[in-house]
Amino acid sequence: MDINKIMEILPHRYPFLLVDKIIELVPGEKAVGIKNLTINEPFFAGHFPGRPIMPGVLMIESMAQVGACALLGQEKYQDKLAFLAGVDNMRFKRLAVPGDRLVITSNVVRVKGNFGKFSAQIKIDDELICQGDLMFGMEKSN
């Protein structure tokens, strides 16, 4: 799934679209996405001057966006927006910096009504840098 298809599914736009490409997709089950970090990312200017680091909350958001691609790519959810409702068991093991290529995997654990859960992780060069569970709610888009 290229960036144009991602933007058909997600409402996010620059600077808050945090996935560049989906390289694996099993609709309703799993998505694997890529985020290439460059020094031009707007958050690096202030986080932190002289030592640019991707904020952990934006790593969480990137995992949620990849999960939303797995879920909202299904026809039955095409009229829905997904919202982050909770984060559990999130652990960060390494920093993400300019030049890194994040490989983001989000698995749909369950969907019940308008709520559900993803299990997600990010790797850089096959090294696990963070993982945790994300809860989401969905509602009809306008």
UniProtKB/TrEMBL annotation:
Q: Which domain of life is it from?
A: Bacteria
Q: List, alphabetically, the HAMAP family matched.
A: FabZ
* PANTHER family recorded: 3-HYDROXYACYL-[ACYL-CARRIER-PROTEIN] DEHYDRATASE (PTHR30272)
The record's subcellular locations are: Cytoplasm
Record organism: Candidatus Syntrophocurvum alkaliphilum
Q: Matching InterPro entries, A to Z? A: FabA_FabZ, FabZ, HotDog_dom_sf
- Could you tell me what this protein does? Involved in unsaturated fatty acids biosynthesis. Catalyzes the dehydration of short chain beta-hydroxyacyl-ACPs and long chain saturated and unsaturated beta-hydroxyacyl-ACPs.
Q: Could you confirm whether the keyword Lipid metabolism appears in this record?
A: yes
Q: Name one GO molecular function term.
A: (3R)-hydroxyacyl-[acyl-carrier-protein] dehydratase activity
Query: Active site at which residues?
Result: H47
Keywords assigned:
Cytoplasm, Lipid A biosynthesis, Lipid biosynthesis, Lipid metabolism, Lyase
Q: Which GO terms describe its biological process?
A: fatty acid biosynthetic process; lipid A biosynthetic process
Q: What is its EC number?
A: 4.2.1.59
GO cellular component, alphabetical, reads: cytoplasm; membrane
Q: What reaction(s) does this enzyme catalyze?
A: a (3R)-hydroxyacyl-[ACP] = a (2E)-enoyl-[ACP] + H2O
Protein name as annotated: 3-hydroxyacyl-[acyl-carrier-protein] dehydratase FabZ
Provide the primary localization: cytoplasm
Specify the taxonomic lineage.
Bacteria, Bacillati, Bacillota, Clostridia, Eubacteriales
Family statement: Belongs to the thioester dehydratase family. FabZ subfamily.
- Which Pfam families does this entry report, sorted A to Z? FabA
